[in-house]
Amino acid sequence: MTLASKTAWQLKQLLDSKQTTCVEIMQSVLSEIERREKDIQAYLLIRKSEDLILEAETIDKKRNAGIAVGPLSGFPVAIKDNICIKNVLTTCGSRILENHRPIYDATIVEKILQADGIIIGKTNLDEFAMGSSTENSAFHPTHNPHQLETVPGGSSGGSAAAVAANECILAIGSDTGGSIRQPAAFCGVVGIKPTYGRVSRYGLIAYASSLDQMGPLGKDVRDTALMTQIISGYDPKDSTSIDTEVPNYLSTISDHHQLTIGVPEEYFGDGLDDSVKAQVKSAIQKMKDRGHTIVSVNFPYTEYAIPAYYIIASAEASSNLARYDGCRFGFRAPDVKDVHSLFTQTRHQGFGREVKRRIMLGTYVLSSGYYDAFYSKAAKIRNLIAQDLSTIFERCDVIMHPSTPTPAFQLKENINDPLAMYMQDIFTVTANLTGLPAMNIPCGWVGNLPVGIHLIANKLNESTLFQAALQLEQTLHETGQWTLPHMNES
Question: Which of 47, 339, 448, 473 is deepest in the core (most CB within 10 A)?
Answer without folding.
Answer: 473
